[in-house]
Design brief:
The chain is of the alpha+beta class. 27% of the residues lie in helices and 33% in strands.
């Protein structure tokens, strides 16, 4: 999957689980917002929009786009 496809599908309501450095993460959404969550300790970052999640959500101080080549979906 290409990064742009992930963004479009997430904006349409799909949720995704992915792995980075042996940790599992979720990008999800509900009526309260959009979330980037690390599974092992439930650390979650919340955002008002999908675009904000992809621009401001950070893992190891990098965005999902910056980490894209190291992420396994």
């Amino acid at each position: 999957m290409e990064y742009n496809e992930l963004v479009v599908r997430f904006e349409m309501g799909e949720e995704f689980q992915f792995s980075y450095k042996n940790d599992s993460y979720w990008i999800s959404q509900n009526e309260e917002g959009y979330f980037l969550t690390r599974e092992r300790d439930s650390f979650s970052q919340s955002f008002k929009s999908a675009r904000e999640l992809f621009v401001n959500g950070k893992i190891d101080d990098k965005t999902v786009l910056e980490l894209w080549d190291s992420i396994e979906i």
